[in-house]
Amino acid sequence: MNGAPVDTLLHQAPEQSGNVNRSASVVDFRRNAPRKLRIALVGTFTPRKCGIATFTSDIFEKLAEFHPEITAEVYALDDPRRRESYRGVPGIAGIINSEDAADYEEAARAINDSGVDAVWLQHEYGIFGGPDGEMVCDFVDRLAAPLILTPHTMLEHPGERQDAILRRLVARASRIMVMSRYSRDLLATRYGAPNELLEVIDHGAPDRPFGRQEEFKERFGLAGRRVLTTFGLLGPGKGLEHAVAALPAIVAEHPDVLYRIIGATHPNLIAEQGESYREGLQARAAELGVSDHIEWVDRFLDTDELLDQLEACDIYLTPYPNLQQSTSGTLSYAVALGKAVVSTPYRHARELLVDDVGCIIEPASADAIATAVNHLLGDPAALEGLQRRAYAKGRETIWPRFAAKSARLIARAAAPAPRTHAGLPTPSLEGVLDMTDGTGMYQHAIGIVPDRRHGYCLDDNARALMLANLVEDLPSQERSRLAVTYASFVQHAWNEDARVFRNFMRFDRSWCEHEGSDDSNGRAAWALGRTLADSPDQDIREWARIWFDRTFPAFDANGSPRAVAFAMLGAAARLRIEPEHAVSRAYLEQGGAFLAQLLEKARRPDWAWFEAVLGYDNPRLSQALVEAGHLLGREDFLACGIDTLAWIAERQIGASGQFRPIGSDSFGHEHRHLPFDQQPLEAQAAIEATHSAFRATRDHRWKIHARAAWNWFFGANDRGAVLADIATGRCRDGINPRGPNANCGAESILAFQLAHYSMIALETEVGGDSRGGFDGARDERVESAIAAP
């Protein structure tokens, strides 16, 4: 298979490529005609006690409250050391043991099978399994739906593994939601996130009336007190030792002050050190003589109670020493409730408290805390002014606004509904001709412009020769010129000394190698057999006969599985026109036995395949056995071919019936298949293999599967991306997690063109599907899944 060019300029997100119109869904959304969407929410979730669990729960609840057209299904990360009970928790679709790789695999499978429109992942290094939470990488690799990423920790100076993990997530994301401008800029500059995918949505906050602190003080028995509050899971990262140290100076001026420290100790800290941090703070308070001015609310509060407790305070303190912290949910809550905030200049505070919305102080300074608090408590007008400015700022982040922005984010991320393509109009050859010169067909392109740096290869010119045998609406002279050009390349690739074909040629027509890959040699044999069977030109057919006879004896029927399969397809093509051709018949027997033996060795209950890994052009292995069984009358070969083709076909159909090719990320990974990158070659292989299966069995389900693969070219895919253009005959190089690859290389153009002619042949087969038409895959989901016969 041709490697993709190194250029990344045109590996664009859908909005850049011109293939997918994302803005339409946004416009519809704003016109109050929102599309019904389903998302999977992945993260920690209540009743687990952590900030991310609260945030994930907030997304779930606020979307349901303000945007019921979006349904969220929650996959909750559970800590095996402190298992939570999710019995009866609304929205739970699955629970993932964060340390169990099999749980991530099963969750990804369930999400893919559910057919959600997008997956929204909350990322924090500590909530996923493995070193630095690296298990998240394999999980996202398995997801087919567009990924919305919310990274909650972005380090300026990450460790090597931390850096690699976040870069992997960024590369997989279709949209990235952050809660601060700093986070957006850091992701773009440090982690390579494309600016057009980044979206800042401020942390949501409640919408409550202003100025009710006296009412809530009365409720909690705090009447007559000046109340300072800090909330959150306790740990050294809160900087509470500095706030405690500031209390003597505050109490000296305001003896009615009460500092309320609300929250349980962080579970991880409890596991490692018990309550030593809290006990140390209590001992320090006693030493300073301010124990009576501190109230410890030692428990985790649900959101409603937390808000009630926050309403009872005058000043909210966040003396955090970690100035890299980019998000604080409680800071957002405090501002929205109209609380005067005294804070160190961590990232979120610097952004949210700008324009005198809060009071920023130097970090790790008890004196700075005392000075700021005493100033505000000593000047009621200054205190109220700060509170009112905070409340006004908080109107920008209240839950209805957060939910609306989140809904737009989801709409932009979700792939358009799968489309189908009616009929089989013949594609233009413009794209083929633009990629062809007097030497042959170029390998790669940047956009639609041929990239001469990568020269030519036998693989593509063999494919191009097969196409030249089939093209319609082209004068015979022009068809002959193309066929001769590609045939000349194949002929020149033969290295007589080594008795093997070469593959890669530079633009200056010098060869890059003396021997090409086994697969490229097998494809040359295939092209010679197909040319002998398909070419309308007697002279070209005679040329193909000569070179078939000259080169075919060099092919080993026990080599690379795909090389053997390709050569078998060439032998089958010749056997169809010369049923007694001994060399072809012998090769089909030997190759069929070889593939059947591979299957017997590799098969296991959940893996009906020839190898432990899936590669490219997978259906060709099954197709070769189907052809051999059909032509030789070998029922065992035919049964193996049909069985394995059904198995691979079932794994290439999504929940909505759309074709989902085995992704190139699968290559080299044993016993798993991944959804990206998706390549046109796989759709062509599925169509041609099912054509062979239909010809052998007359079973209509193969036509249904071929239609699903054909519609993949026109938007019935995981990103709703139109890859093929009838008017030019070009085809994009595939689909990555962000959408289509805008380059139009030879392999992709030829895959589309050859798939078209296979579809024509399939639809005109005697005994074809009486229903006909191209009605899409959704209403034929069960059939198109191709259960094994």
What's the gist of this structure?
The protein has 789 residues and is of the alpha/beta class. Helix content is 46%, strand content 11%. It is elongated.
Uncertain runs: 1-32, 768-789
How is the largest sheet built, in terms of strand order? 3-2-1-4-5-6-7
How many β-strand stretches? 23
From the N-terminal CA to the C-terminal CA, the straight-line distance is: 31 Å
CATH architecture of the largest domain: Alpha/alpha barrel
The structural class is alpha/beta
Number of helices, where a helix is a run of at least 4 consecutive DSSP H or I residues? 30
Q: What does the main sheet amount to?
A: 7 strands, parallel
- What is the CATH class name of the largest domain? Mainly Alpha
CATH topology of the largest domain: Glycosyltransferase
Mean pLDDT: 90
- Which percent range fits the helix content? 40-55%
Give the amount of beta strand, in percent: 5-15%
Q: Which word captures the global form?
A: elongated
